[in-house]
Amino acid sequence: MAKGIWSAGLRGKGVVWSTALMATTMLTGVSSAFAQESGGAQVEEIIVTAQKRAEDLQDVPVSIQAMGTEKLEALGVSDFNDFAKFLPSVSFTQYGPGATQVYMRGVASGGDGNHSGSLPSVGMYLDEQPVTTIQGSLDIHVYDVARVESLAGPQGTLYGASSQAGTIRIITNRPDTGGLYGGFDLEANTITGGDPGYVAEGFVNLPVSENAAARLVGWYEREGGYIDNVLGSRTFTTSGATITNAGRVEDNYNDVETYGARLALKIDLNDNWTVTPALMGQDQRSNGIFGYDPNVGDLEVSHYFPESAHDRWYQAALTLEGKIGSFDLLYAGAYLKRDIDSQADYSDYSYFYDAPGIEYGAYWTDDLGDPLDNPSQYIIGKDGFTKESHELRIASPSDQRFRFIAGLFAQVQTHQIEQRYMIDGLGIYAGQSIEVPGWEDTLWLTEQERVDRDYAIFGDASFDLNDQWTISGGLRAFKAKNGLKGFFGFSENYSSGTGVAACYGPPVVGNGPCTNLNKETEEDGFTHRVNITYRIDDDRMVYGTWSTGYRPGGINRKGTLPPYESDFLTNYELGWKTTWLDGSLRFNGAVYFEQWDDFQFSVLGTNGLTEIKNAAQAEVYGIETDIVWRPTSQLTLSGGGAITDAKLTEDFCYDIMACVPVTAPSGTELPVTPKFKGNLTARYDFTFGDYDAFLQGSVMHQSSTWTDLRLAERAIIGEQDAWTMLDFSGGVERDAWSAELFVVNATDERASLTRYAECAESVCGAATYIVPAKPRTFGIRLGRKF
């Protein structure tokens, strides 16, 4: 039955539709036979707001996986990695805390994440506000959260530009005027071969008056390190000098410390209007790097300079909601500010570019013009982000045969970029200084400002033809404007064609020496959604959707390259939402076909400069399922899976004039997303004396993946192996106290999240780093509610 649906999903739409209906009919016939065995147990009802209305998950004709409070607590979710492994349609690359690029349904080219590159293709939301910054998503601590919603497929009509392939929403618990209550949780853990960690988190809901309440949430977390910086040495070709990292050797040096808080105030102005201001902030400090070099050893690197990041952000948000007659009106606005100070070892670049036959070390000279004994590079970076968003929407009554939502959206996000590629003692070459003017020991400087603006008007409407059939559609008209200005490059004495040599005016950003970049591009267009839903009965429905999503274009820093244009994703989807066995079994899923046109692709070009072009065409076939079954009131089985077949449908030639050989031929598998990803969790609740107790186990598996689209780079970096991870937990609860023991990644699987080289793969690929999932972690949690 299920096998029939899965296999048919890759053959044709008509077959899928008929197979899904056949499965529905067969399950209806056996439903009553198993109803007695369920013992009256029912799966958790989840209310979602995916379509900007509060609706039961099973009534929304969208492919959604939602984890409510009960599920999040059961799985011990505290961050993105914790819940992403249970979302089959979600894949990601990650270089460390706060450096995650998220993808859905195989819509990934493997070239995103650069500050002067493409915007994300998956939108991240905190309540009503988008929180995806240009270089990735915020590392939000998940605690006192009502639910996490994962919306697969284009959400462009309601969520806009960065929801081309999907949207992930973290919905927090709101203040409650119903009473005073709260709780806290404490955790201690230890990583196999690494350091211990600690977590303290708590919340309190405080009624202020009959019509007002506040909710305060706070957390502190220390994550132990598990990557060792071990003793190493290098001998440079040009100078013949040998260096060591003896002063930097340290075990478990990639520790992380995070603390933050969230405060929300809810005020009922009258019976119809409520205002909810909220403030959330987080400060995170991390050391080391989160990848290891297998040539050095398991979970080991040999790096030569300090490595750290200080990532802090806050978001101020305001939601005003009420009624005008029978219509609901909502305004949601937010201002996000994020700052990151970082240091990174970049010695691989210096070492491999000074290899025999290249010998760039001859150009890295001291104040006497002699080659430096230690030309190793390191990077000091400062990134400043702001994001301001406003949305105003109106919704007609949801119980009417015809209903609609319409709104306006505006967003401005900025990124102040400062990156210094430094060599200590850098001086004179051929009698002239090779430092960037005004920046001591700086070989390369990026001092830029990026601004992305998005404006949109949108609408979505539904009409019930009768009790079983509903048609709906949406349209979003948008205008996007992207600007990039400032300075990037070398001094004019080091390069005669880039950097200072290419300047044409005084500095316009920060303390740059001059300006060699000041460009803007803008475009407009629209996305759409058309849906038809058939309700078989009160517990089962099937639907079909035709929708599109987009990602704005932008600026290429390289003057000879034109701006890159928006890329569009077209989605054809057939899905089902079904409940069986008197509510004890929920079986949802979707099959889909997506076309990705002229997608944006980024590579490192000359001088390691990011170049973005609209590359080629790709198609994605897939199926995703989500199942929850409570055969008894004590046992709950839940899981999901996704099969994704994402490939180029034409040859990709990055250099069209000299495409020999082809960069990636038609039929090449797109990177990042596994062909299969799935999970299964079993939880058994029982009574142990005076205690309520549970035992739980989860298994997660995904197949192998590539990190790059280009065949030559794949051959250098290698394929990421398939992996399987196991999590186990057990605990007891009595009165308001709870205790839990857990082990995450019980088999200590070295699951690869990302593979990369520090510079162009053809040069630095001999040192390929693997960012692993966290090694086996044992822990204990204690909690108290009041």
By secondary-structure content and strand pairing, the structural class works out as mainly beta
Beta strand count: 43
CATH class call:
Mainly Beta
Average pLDDT taken over every residue: 90
CATH topology name, in short, is Maltoporin, Chain A
> Over the alpha carbons, how many angstroms does the gyration radius reach?
27 Å
The quaternary organization reads as: single chain
Bulk shape: globular
Query: In which range does the helix fraction lie?
Result: under 10%
Uncertain stretches = 1-38
Give the helix tally. 8
Give the N-terminus to C-terminus distance in angstroms: 47 Å
Q: In CATH terms, what is the architecture? A: Beta Barrel
Strand composition percent: over 45%
Write the CATH homologous superfamily: TonB-dependent receptor, beta-barrel domain
In total, the number of domains comes to: 1
Sheet having the most strands: 22 strands, antiparallel, barrel
Please explain how this structure is put together.
It is a single chain. This protein has a single domain (2-785), classed as Maltoporin, Chain A (Beta Barrel). The chain is mostly beta strands and 786 residues long. 8% of the residues lie in helices and 51% in strands. The model is unreliable at 1-38 (pLDDT under 50). The two termini are 47 Å apart. β16 and β17 form a beta hairpin. The chain has 8 helices and 43 strands. α1 packs antiparallel against α2 (13-35).
